[in-house]
Each structure stands twice: as C-alpha cells, then as structure tokens.
User: Which sequence fits this backbone?
C-alpha cells in the first residue's frame, strides 16, 4: 500500500494541519516507507510461533497482600451527613 500526494494532503486537511507541497512530498515518502516496513513484517511466516506479551520471560515481583492500615470506617462515617447500613447516602441527582 502506498499513499498518493493527494491522499497525504487530504489526511493533513482532515487533521487540520497546514502542509506545503514540499512537506507533503516528504511526508508521503516517510509514510510510504512505514507502509513498506509493515508489508515486510506481514510477509513473515509466523505459523507455530506463540504470541508473547514481553520480549523476555520475566514476571512481576509481587508484595505480600497484608493490611497496612487499621479500620477507620467508623471515624469516616461519623462526619458523614447521612449513612444507612454502613453506606453513605447522597442526594438524588438524576430523576
């Protein structure tokens, strides 16, 4: 796939980018180079290759799931305007 000069100008217009003819020609070359690279990558046979999320087989170190703060629910709800059954009540906004 390659872009024509008119297509590059149209894309620039849609993106609200002012572009001169020289800039459009340069941009056309850059974009067509990118499309050629994509075509080369798509031509590679990847049959039998398992997809991967990362280039290296590493895993994230996880910290221990431990409580670090005490339960302050009662203190927070003591200053709330209205609560019911441990839940905060708020005024109805949408009818």
Assistant:
């Amino acid at each position: 796939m390659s872009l024509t000069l008119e297509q590059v100008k149209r894309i620039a217009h849609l993106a609200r980018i002012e572009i001169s003819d020289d800039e459009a020609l340069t941009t056309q070359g850059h974009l067509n180079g990118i499309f050629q690279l994509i075509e080369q990558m798509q031509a590679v046979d990847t049959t039998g290759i398992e997809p991967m999320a990362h280039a290296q087989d590493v895993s994230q170190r996880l910290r221990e799931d431990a409580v670090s703060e005490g339960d302050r629910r009662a203190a927070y709800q003591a200053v709330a305007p209205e609560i019911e059954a441990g839940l905060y009540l708020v005024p109805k906004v949408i009818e």
